[in-house]
Structures are given as C-alpha cells and as structure tokens.
What does this fold into?
Amino acid sequence: MQRIDNQYYIQGIRVEDIAQQFGTPLYVYDADHILGQINRFRQGFSTVNLQIKYACKALTNINIMKLMLSQGVGLDTVSLSEMRMGLEVGFAPQDIVFTPNCVGIEELIEAADLGVRINIENLSNLEKFAQHYGSQIPVCIRLNPHIATQNNADKVDWWHNQSKFGISLDQMKDVKAIAQQYSLPINGIHIHSSSVIMTPEVFLKGAETVFEIALGFENLEFIDFGGGIKVNVGDGKEVIDIVELGQQLDPVFQAFCQKYGRTLELWFEPGRFLVGNAGTLLTECKVRKRNGGTEFVGVDSGLNHLIRPMMYDAYHEIVNVSNPEGAPQKYTVVGNICEIDNLGKDRQLPEVREGDIIALKSAGAYGYSMASTYNSRFRPAEVLVINGEARLIRKRDTYEDFMRNQIDVTLENSITQ
Ligand code: LLP
It folds into this structure.
C-alpha cells in the first residue's frame, strides 16, 4: 500500500475504490510485492543451489500458490489438504515437502504414496516409516538443535529443547540406528527457526550445529533451514536482512559442502517473508465511542479475522485510508467480537470518523489462514491485485456456508420439557 498525496494505492488502484468495489472486511494482496520478495530472497543466495519452498500455511489461497509456482518456487505443506491443493494447482510432487508435526503415520504414508518429499520429526514415526518403506523412500530429519533464541516468549520460541518440535540432538544416535536397521536413506536435515531469530549471528549458530550433525549422514541431498524470517512490520524491532544473511551463510555453507564432499542444495521454507507484507486487511469503522479515557474505533472485523494481536501480541500497523490528513489522535482500534478484541491499542491515527476505511497492514501471513467464523460472522473475501487489476480470489462466507454441514437431529418429541 503506497501513499501518494492524500490517497493510498495498491499498484495504482485507489484502496478506497477496492474497498468500495468488494466491500469490507476484505483481505487484499499485492502480487508485485510477493514477486519482489522472491527476487530479494534469491539475490541473497545467488551463489548456492537455493530451493525456496513456500510455507503455504501462511496464506493458502490457490492463486497465491500458482503465483509461487510460476516463479519456480516449491511448496512446504503441513497437511494432506495443503498438499492436495498444491498438486491440484500443478506443483510436481517432488517440489512439495511435507513437514507435519505429531501426525499419525497414515498421513506420512499417504503423502509418501503421492510422491512428495517427506520430513519426519519424531523417532516413533521414523521407525514406523522405515518399517513400511525400508530403503524405498528417503526422508528428511527435523532437528531440535537446543538453541535458545533471544526472546523467551513461549509462543514463538521453538528452537529450545523444551519445545515439541523436531528430534533432539541427543537422539541422533537413535536416528542413525533406525536408518541402519532398515536401510532407510536420510536425504536432508531440517531446522525451522522461529521468527524470533533476528540476527545472522543467532542463525549461523544454529546452522553450524546443523552442519555438524549433517556430517554424520552420508546420503544427504539438501539442508533445509525452514522458515521464520521476520519482515519489517513497522514496530521498530530489528529484522534480519536476507541479503546479509545469505552473504554470511554462503562461505560457511561452501566450507561445509567441501568437508561433506558434495555440493548440497540449500532449502528454505519462508511463509511470512514472501506474503506477510503483501497483505492488508481493509475494514470500515462502524462505531466511534469513548469509555473512560479511551477513544475506541470499532471496525467490522476482529480477532475472528486477524487473531495475531490477541494471540501473540503481534503488531499490525494501522492506517486511516480515508482521512490521512485528519488531526492525529490516540485511539484503540477494536473488533466487533463479544470479548476483548483489540487490533491495536493506543494508536496515533488521523481523526477517525464512522465510515472511514481502516487498514491493518502486514496481514498477508497468518491472517486469513487463521481466520475463523467465531460469533457466526463471515470470513472476509480475498482480492489479489495483479497486473494492475484487483481480482476477487475468494468469496466472502455466506449464511449457507454456516448451515451446510450442520445436521438437525432435535426431533420435536424427543426434547423433554
Ligand atoms: N517451516 C516450518 C516447519 C514451520 O513450522 C513454519 C511455520 C514455516 C516454515 C513458515 O514460517 P514463517 O516463515 O511463515 O515464519 N501463526 C504464527 C506463526 C506460526 C508459524 C508456524 N510455522 C504467526 O501468526 O506469527
């Protein structure tokens, strides 16, 4: 979203016009931004054999998947449905990786039979998989490298050894024993750095642990560094510079490959890096009210559409699209859900009037994909701005959607008064 004079635009289209045409609440994605992020990622890793696997849990619209496909980006999936969508839009099975956690072995078997790449993150499934396939299908191992990040927020601090993710370093001997017993080829080593990794130094520390472990496996084809690359959301917090990260990782990776005796592929699974700042949630201010000392802006959305502020204390920059020149004032922007439902607390915004379009930025990743129908409110429509045109890519829910799967079994005479 770009401000020119008194108007906000996406690819030259007035944001207010988009809101008017498609209604609010509305998720709007800018395809150009996504393409720019893909290029930037590649620019950072131009000297290695980089494979980007888009973590489609961030934004699971098939048009976004197709956009990735058109750019030669692969897919990271965590459920059979994500995988099916990927296959349906045309990804080759070998360009899709399945990185679930704590799923039953039957899901892994179904995925393997579809021909996608398999990532396993616990010994129990590793053994069952090996028993089932023996040497037929290689798997990648997800590590838990026991690294504490700078941030101790439990909700996002996933590298440390108390988290449920990955196979602990001290279980590597068990991994090797299983692989040997069943002649199971291990073709990749994976870690997923949560988004609290803000500096190349912390990242490189994790990478070195991975490289060390990798030397103990003979059949590797790739190292997978997962996702978790933060983007600048305007909260003033440090973010990693992808080009700088690439430049710092490059010599370490090359040295590892030399020691390993072969040049491996380097994989990443970015979600938010590619789509986070491409998305905006457009809402309309329906009610202005004042309680105590607080000026509230009540919009036609809420935690049902964007749960990140309430769930993670995540910051989303808020913009008054309709009145950029209004006198600045402090507001708390809230949704219409029947509980505390802050989208942004104590924000300085140009005067907000009922009817103004209020935009929540950085809502491309984990916005729609975590939206719910709580309070029986419709999930928003989605629009993709591509080649200078705003295209509807998902309809708003309807009342019929709510009723479709419900089964009425309350026969009148079986209800005791
Ligand atoms: N790879 C693996 C194995 C993952 O678990 C994830 C995210 C990704 C890649 C992509 O991470 P990204 O690049 O998008 O940070 N709902 C939370 C984020 C949960 C991320 C879960 N795993 C949020 O709204 O911030």
Summary: The chain has two domains: 2-28+276-403, 99-270. The pocket of LLP is lined by residues 55, 58, 76, 99, 192, 195, 226-229, 269-273, 308, 312, 365-366 (CB under 6 Å).
